[in-house]
Specification:
Length: 295
């Protein structure tokens, strides 16, 4: 029987910077310090350059309302710090001009290892170094609960997150080309980092950052997943979703397969009709700034 799990949730979104005067996406390295010297935007919000991207982080929260409000506060403060000439944009991938890659920091890859919940091994980055100007954004989710610190529970939970959050994102995301490019390098199925408080789920692209409605959906899908993780239904649900197909659906952004996987577990998992409808809804994501009232 499922019962709600009490958990904390946070994020460290990675976004790109658009220079209005130049009319293009530019490196953040001339605008911000690196992650070792972040800028304090108050209330526990920090911003810094991560490779050529802008990365922000904020303290974890415990409710959906606070999750949405903290994202809005973070986006507003980052945009205000950068100034009116610059916009922040959530993009899964982009090929930067050579002129934006002259700083040696633009060619560094993070060294903190991530893990694969299916192999239970450290992910070996197939790309030893960047080969061109392709860079990728992300929307990591940080989840905290004592049960998520358990080795086996953590791996099973990431598998469940792939089914209910990862596959759902493949269905509602509409920038498939950028997401497929991203997953050639990063954010593949089952990717996570263990943390002292639980885990960091690293699969989601920045598409979920495009509107408050998508953040609310992400929260609700995560909440639903954790209620299963904390129940006696885990093995039963996992048996209904072939792990190879789950990985195929996410890694190749295969909507049809992702839908088939979710349809196969909806009844047994008792997924609410409201969630199913929202996964299949066509979201208005044309204007990130308007959606978050940043202008």
């Amino acid at each position: 029987m499922k019962t709600p799990m009490q958990f904390t949730i946070g994020s460290d979104p990675e976004l790109m910077v658009y220079d209005r005067s130049l009319g293009k996406i530019v490196s953040s390295l001339s605008l911000l310090p690196d992650k070792h010297n972040p800028i304090d935007l108050n209330d526990g919000i920090f911003v810094y350059a991560d490779n050529v991207l802008v990365e922000a982080k904020f303290p974890p929260v415990t409710t959906k309302g606070d999750f949405v409000k903290t994202f809005q506060k973070t986006f507003r403060r980052v945009k205000s710090h950068l100034g009116n000439n610059f916009e922040i944009i959530p993009l899964a991938s982009h090929v930067y001009d050579d002129s934006e890659l002259q700083n040696k920091e633009a060619w560094k890859i993070g060294c903190t290892p991530s893990y694969n919940c299916y192999t239970k091994d450290e992910n070996e980055n197939e790309i030893v170094s960047f080969q061109d100007g392709t860079r990728t954004g992300s929307a990591h989710i940080h989840l905290g609960n004592p049960s998520l610190c358990n080795y086996d529970r953590r791996h099973l939970t990431v598998r469940l997150l792939d089914i209910f959050v990862g596959c759902a994102s493949v269905i509602f995301e509409n920038d498939i080309v950028a997401s497929r490019m991203r997953r050639q390098f990063y954010g593949r199925a089952g990717e996570f980092r263990p943390t002292p408080y639980g885990l960091e789920y690293r699969v989601l692209s920045p598409f979920v950052l495009l509107s408050p409605a998508l953040i609310e959906l992400t929260y609700d899908l995560t909440d639903f997943t954790l209620s299963i993780s904390d129940s006696n239904e885990v093995e039963q649900i996992l048996r209904l979703a072939n792990p190879r197909k789950v990985q195929d659906a996410i890694n190749n952004c295969n909507r049809r397969l992702a839908s088939s996987i979710l349809n196969g577990v909806c009844r047994e998992s008792e997924m609410p009709d409201d969630l199913i409808q929202r996964i299949n809804y066509s979201y208005n994501v044309r204007d990130f700034n308007r959606n978050w009232e940043l202008r």
